[in-house]
Automatic annotation (TrEMBL):
Transmembrane segments: none annotated. This is 2,5-diketo-D-gluconate reductase B. The active site is at Y40. Substrate binds at H98. InterPro entries: AKR, Aldo/ket_reductase_CS, NAD(P)_OxRdtase_dom_sf, NADP_OxRdtase_dom. PROSITE patterns: ALDOKETO_REDUCTASE_1 (PS00798), ALDOKETO_REDUCTASE_2 (PS00062). It catalyses: hydroxyacetone + NADP(+) = methylglyoxal + NADPH + H(+).
Length: 268
């Protein structure tokens, strides 16, 4: 059984003092899970902000992601050790393969085996994948077993609900983490979401996050603003009705925001 916190703090795009402030604010407000990645170029700043916060390491859940240049057997574990050094910890809680990157010269078998080895060595408590479609998740399961895949972190918002993949993951017992739940802010202007927010005396961001939480997904919204970080966290206490959920379900529009060339697979 995987153990992934329902609510975390995203750090994509945030650099330097901006990410330090965001992590400091987040920790002060009660966030205890932080999502970073080697490619975000901010692991050292995340580590610095955590160290300065005084929050005990045991109370935190740290996720990082292996970048595609480090997928080979020789590079994956050394690159994770470098991440641990930057994050100032002996082990992270979760390490993900960031993108499937099917043509980068390293087989899925090789990088999944190396990731499993990192777990065996105690460098990461759990392992998982990100941006994997059904077929690629099946291949990853074939290498490490489904009990070894704690989550698949995927783009998932009211505009891109990824239902086929979610059904597959839930049947396999693999936890779903929704990234860009706010579609990088795009769903916040949606009239349906705004109407629900008004009725519930909530913000549109809280509505989108509460929708994802009610479906059982973890969320990791990011913000550079302390007030947004604070109000987003309160999505955990917002209860949406079945009718609200049905209205949001109808917003699906295959609205994919991220699809880096050469790295991404087609969604199902
Ligand atoms: N695995 C992957 O490949 C992958 C890819 C993308 C992202 N991620 C992870 O997922 C996290 C979340 O994605 P994201 O940061 O790209 O997008 P997001 O969380 O969907 O949206 C962030 C944007 O929404 C705004 N925002 C946040 N809360 C708001 C609020 N309450 N009211 C109004 N605006 C609000 C932020 O602006 P302000 O700063 O102005 O608040 C920012 O522009 C990332 O940080 C990263 O950790 C993973």
């Amino acid at each position: 059984m995987s153990n992934i916190p329902a609510f975390g703090l995203g750090t994509f795009r945030l650099q330097g003092q901006v990410v330090i402030d965001s992590v400091r604010n987040g920790l002060e407000l009660g966030y205890r899970a932080i999502d970073t990645a080697q490619i975000y170029g901010n692991e050292a700043e995340v580590g610095e902000a955590i160290a300065a916060s005084g929050v005990a390491r045991d109370d935190l859940f740290l996720t990082t992601k292996i970048w595609v240049d480090h997928y080979s057997r020789e590079k994956l574990i050394p690159s994770l050790k470098d991440s641990l050094h930057k994050l100032r910890t002996d082990a992270v809680d979760l390490t993900l393969i960031h993108w499937p990157a099917p043509n980068n010269g390293v087989s899925l078998d090789e990088f999944m085996s190396a990731l499993a080895e990192a777990k065996q060595q105690g460098l990461t408590k759990q392992i998982g994948v990100s941006n994997f479609n059904i077929e690629l998740t099946k291949q990853a399961i074939a290498v490490v077993g489904k009990d070894n895949i704690a989550t698949n972190q995927i783009e998932l918002s009211p505009y891109l609900q990824n239902r086929k993949l979610v059904d597959f993951l839930q049947q396999a017992g693999i936890h779903v983490t929704s990234y860009m739940t706010l579609a990088y802010g795009k769903v916040l202007g949606d009239p349906v979401i705004r109407a629900i927010a008004e009725r519930r005396h909530a913000t549109p961001a809280q509505v989108a996050l509460a929708w994802a939480l009610r479906l059982g997904y973890s969320v990791i919204p990011s913000s550079t603003k302390r007030e947004n970080l604070a109000s987003n966290l309160l999505a955990q206490t917002l209860e949406l009705s079945d009718d609200d959920m049905a209205q949001i379900a109808a917003l699906e529009r295959n609205g994919r925001e991220v699809s880096p060339e050469g790295l991404a697979a087609q969604w199902d």
